[in-house]
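Please, structure for the following, as tokens.
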Amino acid sequence: MKFIGIDISKSTFVAAYPQLKGYQTHTYTNDIKGVKKFISSLSVADHQCVLEATGNYGTLLLYMLCEQNIAASLVNPKQIKHFARMMMAVTKTDDVDARLIALYGEKMHPPVYKVPAEAVILMKHKKVVLRQLKKQLTSLTNLRGSFTVLPRIDKNSLKALDKTIAFIEKQIGGLEADIVNIANEEFSKQIKSLTSVKGIGITLATSLIISTAGFTQFENPKQLSRYIGICPTYQQSGTSINIKGTINRNGDSDLRSLLYIASWSAIRYNQACRETYQRLKAKGKPSKVALIAVANKLVRQAFAICKAESIYIDGYISKKEKTSNFSCI
């Protein structure tokens, strides 16, 4: 298998083709015509494309590759960044980046990207817009609050702010309702399973489904926890360095926040989560550390019941949990 490294930009993308010695690069326009021309140079049996997850600019290329059954891998930009440091790269251009991505594919053999269901793609789009609208709402609400302390307030400005805030709130409510409706229609069984876990509500359940593409993108709960960014980091070397670091924070920050908030409820109503929290607190662990452990517990519970297509039973202990502990903490 030959790995083609691709560096994406808004209007063009650079592809690095492996040769007997080094790589040869070609630049294509980032549109349907350019992608078709690039695909015509590939072989389904011999090539696998590797590109960074750089937002919407690479989506057209990724989906057209998948439509033609050409293997493609979507890689976290941090992985390429650290790989470039390991290779001691001192030059950064589109051509150099494409070669580095191709070399990364050759050395690391990243997994092939799986196109999520249409419903998941639709919910992802809505979630992205929803995130930006909430940021705007917070900004405008803070601005309006700052106006209230002024000795004189321009009524027209205040009126414009109030109308804009009301409009954004209406749009947020509509998008949230759309996401819940799509989730209930397309993933009703998983929604029922997830919301049966004490501590997981409809908002967190839909976010888990969106991030995991209906629990099809991950093979085990450890992978999901790493993706979300709630696994602690460690540094150990010889006898002088032994540091227990913070969580890695590499993944979905919104989902990570929802899980942390859900842990507050879980330690009250979810027996397994409450026992985990109390056990860690008894050992002298800080509350935040114990709550992160509870968030990981919720991820394992959610993963298990969705894969088993069952309903959560509070206090149930599986045979695996009796004999081993597969927590990433």
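The longest strand covers residues 2-8. Strands lie at 2-8, 12-18, 23-29, 47-52, 71-75, 232-237, 241-247.
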